[in-house]
Design goal:
alpha/beta, 6-stranded antiparallel β-sheet, 15 strands
């Protein structure tokens, strides 16, 4: 559905192509952009494409500039729902009075920067936000409409039921592929069943003999290192305790003697009181250290045979680890190797049970594959049915639009063929057909429509799809390619009606389209020292008449052309 609460309020372009700097204060209805060939009209579209995620091309940077930049201020209802609300919740961009700024810049070296609100982001996030506000129909879209995959996407977009059926189909397709893959792997395993069972049994037998614990390898190595140095530790700790706590020569008793020597003078000099305080603190610290060292000394008591038992256990673990470490792609220094082998043991117990019950298990898997295939087939049939309904509805609406665009004798139809192969898009193949005469044979668009007819067919499809778009802005570039004046008036009037529900931005060379716009921007080029620069100006009144006259005859000062321009503007009632 059209979303009139969303619109581009201002588009700013700097150093793109021949445009030095341009700001377009866009209105909510029909906006048109015109200018001479080579003035840079398409640079506006280029800017919007960059915001939509187009590839960064350093060649777009204006000659003599270091960096191009484009920004769009977009407005929306701050209590928006759906995918826009999800994006805002996830990325928390800076929003001011219901307005959000989308920006992208590219340096001459090809380095780019994307910004949403005031925060740097990725181009993919920027394009996701842009897609919520505007959709672009450029000259390239006319070529895309000939692609069968794109035709199928357009068809699905017209129907919520078809979209939901496609979602269900995708889930069923993934389930069927998963079940089929599991069956294939299990059948492969069963071919080498005896050898596989023997290998699994041997591994699990070795694992059960050793019964390793997850952190045991590190703990044993640490304990052995400690026990290997226990005698040296005992001597060190014992010597330290003796030096501190010997009743005759220990540091503690000597600190007591020092205190006694000074205490007789503590009242006579402040310095003595400070020394006494520090000596008391030192004595307490020495006593605590002596106590802790004595505690450590007590832990160095070794049970007889403990070191031998630990080394024997380590040898068993090492033998097991050396034998199977290649299966987890680890070496003896990897602390996670043993944990990986323990986890592998649980997986292999399950696989062993499955292989030992192979006949029963394979029947279960085959039943699951058959069930998932039936459900996939049902979902594919439902998707086809919804697409047929959508195809009939879209064809009717496109033909109504074609009649309104001056092709009242033409016929547009959609052919849907269903195959037996399940692909990510379903089991259907689609073909858009067209004939310019109601008695003619419908042919594929690539064969049945001329250049001008193809432009109008594409516009008719866009108009028919408009109500299914969530965006607030539709951008059309040269939608009138290959079309004459009378047809241009028809297209312009239809776009004007569409502008009652959407913000419309049209880049055109046809005066008959431009006269219907509520806001008219002219792009002009100027040569300065052999450098061509372009600027954008909004035209009103006589200036607009002059621009329309230029578009009609190529001569903006022609009285006849200006008279014709005024007549067209009066006809459009702008």
């Amino acid at each position: 559905m059209a979303n009139r609460s969303r619109a581009i309020t201002e588009l700013a372009i700097r150093n793109i192509g021949v445009i030095d700097q341009a700001v377009l204060p866009l209105g909510p209805g029909f906006n048109v952009i015109t200018g001479e060939t080579g003035a840079g009209k398409t640079m506006v579209l280029t800017g919007l494409n960059l915001l939509s995620g187009a590839r960064a091309d350093a060649d777009l940077v204006r000659h003599g500039a270091e960096r191009l930049a484009v920004s769009a201020s977009v407005s929306f209802h701050e209590r928006s729902e759906g995918s826009l609300a999800d994006l805002i919740s996830e990325h928390s961009p800076e929003i001011e009075d219901g307005s959000l700024l989308l920006q992208r810049s590219i340096s001459r070296e090809g380095k780019g920067k994307a910004v949403v609100g005031s925060d740097p982001t990725t181009v993919s996030v920027l394009s996701a936000f842009a897609a919520e506000f505007f959709a672009i129909h450029g000259q390239g879209t006319n070529h895309r409409i000939l692609d069968h995959g794109y035709q199928l996407q357009l068809l699905d977009r017209t129907s919520e039921k078809a979209t939901e059926a496609h979602r269900v189909y995708s889930l069923k397709l993934e389930e069927w592929r998963t079940r089929s893959r599991e069956l294939k792997e299990f059948e492969k395993a069963l071919k080498d069943k005896d050898r596989e069972i023997a290998s699994l049994t041997k591994f699990l037998s070795d694992l059960d003999k050793v019964k390793p614990l997850a952190d045991e390898w590190e703990e044993i190595n640490q304990r052995i290192r400690r026990l290997d140095s226990v005698e040296d530790l005992r001597l060190a700790f014992s010597g330290a305790v003796s030096a501190l706590d010997d009743e005759n020569e220990g540091a503690i008793i000597r600190s007591v003697s020092a205190l006694r020597s000074l205490e007789a003078f503590k009242e006579s000099d402040d310095a003595f009181r400070d020394y006494i305080s520090r000596l008391r603190a030192a004595r307490i610290e020495l006593q605590e250290i002596a106590a802790e060292l004595s505690g450590e000394l007590a832990t160095l008591e070794v049970e007889p045979g403990e070191l031998d038992r630990l080394r024997e256990r380590l040898a068993a673990l090492k033998h097991f680890l050396q034998r199977y470490r290649t299966e987890v792609d680890s070496d003896l220094s990897d602390p996670d190797a043993m944990r990986s082998l323990i986890a592998m043991g649980e997986e292999r117990r399950i696989l062993l049970r499955s292989l030992q019950q192979g006949d029963d298990q394979i029947e279960i898997l085959r039943t699951e594959v058959e069930r998932s295939l039936r459900e996939l087939t049902q979902s594919a049939n439902e998707l086809t049915n919804q697409r047929r309904i959508a195809a009939s509805d879209l064809s009717t609406r496109v033909n109504v639009e074609l009649a309104g665009l001056g092709l009242d004798r033409s016929r547009f139809s959609i052919e849907l063929k269903t195959g037996t192969e399940f692909t990510s898009s379903g089991a259907d193949a689609v073909e858009f057909l067209f004939t310019a005469h109601d008695q003619g044979k419908p042919l594929p668009l690539s064969k049945g429509a001329s250049g001008g007819e193809l432009s109008r067919v594409m516009l008719a499809i866009e108009l028919a799809l408009a109500e299914h778009r969530e965006v607030g802005t539709l951008v059309f570039d040269e939608i009138d390619a290959g079309i004459g004046g009378e047809a241009g008036l028809i297209i312009g009037e239809r776009l004007a009606r569409l502008a009652k529900h959407f913000q419309i931005i049209v880049i055109t060379h046809l005066a008959q389209v431009a006269v219907w716009a509520e806001r008219h921007f002219r792009i002009e080029k100027e040569a300065n020292d052999q450098i061509v620069l372009s600027s954008v100006t909004e035209v009103h009144g006589d200036q607009r008449v002059i621009e329309i006259a230029r578009m009609l005859s190529g001569q903006s000062d022609s009285d006849v052309a200006q008279k014709h321009a005024r007549e067209l503007l009066k006809h459009a009632n702008v």
